[in-house]
Amino acid sequence: MDYTIRCDTHTHTLFSRHAYSTIEENVRAAKAQGLELLASTDHYSSMLYHDFSDSRNYQYLSTAHEWPREWMGVTLLEGCEADIVDLTGHLFGWDIEVSKTITGDDFKYGPETLLHHVTKKMDYVIASVHGKRFADGADRVQCTKAYLGALDHHKVFILGHIGRSGLDVDVDEILLKAKSMHKLIEINEHTMDTDEGAIRRCRAIAIRCAELDVPISVATDAHISCKIGKFTRLPAFLSEIHFPEELIMSRDKAHFLTALKQSGITDLTALI
Fold this sequence. Notes:
This protein is α/β, with parallel strands linked by helices.
């Protein structure tokens, strides 16, 4: 089966610190690849800064709504990849209070959490596990609850690379909750470059998504512009398991933005 993917829904810029391109370079690459939609979703986690309570460190994310919505013929969405930080499923910054603007003035309506401050104007959030210390000694039920809790956050639209995290989880429980909430499970190209164990887990997850009719988002997780929109291994990966094309919400802009609207997070269907 041939798959054409016209969206890249998980990408990074220089802000992520271990990524190497600007937002303009990524948009140019998206245009060159014939993409209809690009989502810039830089890391939002403790890996960026030591001083979590200073809102100035996160102004790139909190003010990205100033980007043009259409740029070089590509629809541009603003989001982030937020770390799941505990077994309850909280996202980074949920317990960090910020009270001052980037100019040092007090917030007009009083203090707010860093998580809310950074994500409140975003189109959506990807929730992923990177650091796994919070799950040391946790059992399958507890690890599963971390993902279930993350799905409850009102901005989370996609669960990022579950197979890569390697946590012992009840996959079906997570997939069925995501489906019930009209949220997506991600299968990404970058994972295909990791270890065989991660690839096997992703394969098992993709098979269950197909069997349970759970929609997915296919993305690159590109950390440099030359990889934007470059799906080199995923099409064959999905073809081998006969994955239904109709479950790939990122196959084009119309299906992705319709799915985003159905989740109740953001309605951008006027851009279709």
